[in-house]
Design goal:
Layout: H1 5-12, E1 27-33, E2 40-47, E3 53-61, H2 64-77, H3 82-86, H4 90-97, H5 104-124
Antiparallel strand pairs: 1-2, 2-3
The chain binds FE2/S2 (inorganic) cluster (2 copies).
Protein name: Iron-sulfur cluster assembly scaffold protein IscU
Function: A scaffold on which IscS assembles Fe-S clusters. It is likely that Fe-S cluster coordination is flexible as the role of this complex is to build and then hand off Fe-S clusters.
GO molecular function: iron ion binding; iron-sulfur cluster binding
């Protein structure tokens, strides 16, 4: 299958690969797996006192589209409020990366990872 140029760019130069301190109360961690293929994505956000995401990191064990999707969303997340981040849809990711139908679930993984990271952060604030 041919990958789009944007997928190849993110795959070859992934942005924001790495890890934030899971124990930090400002950090939310989302870990999700794709039942369809077994790929795993971990996405972390650091949220400042104004509720704005100031950093995002990912580690993805998966296909090129999953890596590109997570790399792309780490770029999108920075500077967004939690509500804005929550509103990111997998369809926007798939469109930006021109993912073919069989790779749509890779972008779903990224949307799910964002939601899981936000949920983890919100739980920590209780
Ligand atoms: Fe998951 Fe391709 S099936 S890596
Ligand atoms: Fe399963 Fe991409 S995440 S093939």
């Amino acid at each position: 299958m041919a990958y789009s140029e944007k997928v190849i760019d993110h795959y070859e130069n992934p942005r924001n690969v790495g890890t934030l301190d899971k124990e930090d109360t400002h950090v939310g961690t989302g870990m999700v797996g794709a039942p369809a293929c077994g790929d795993v994505m971990r996405l972390q956000i650091r949220v400042n006192d104004e509720g704005v995401i100031e950093d995002a990191r990912f580690k993805t064990y998966g296909c090129g589209s999953a890596i590109a999707s997570s790399s792309l969303v780490t770029e999108w997340l920075k500077g967004k409020t939690l509500d804005q981040a929550q509103a990111i849809k997998n369809a926007e990711i798939a469109e930006e990366l021109a993912l073919p139908p069989v790779k749509i679930h890779c972008s779903v993984l990224a949307e799910d990872a964002i939601k899981a990271a936000i949920e983890d952060y919100r739980q920590k604030q209780k």
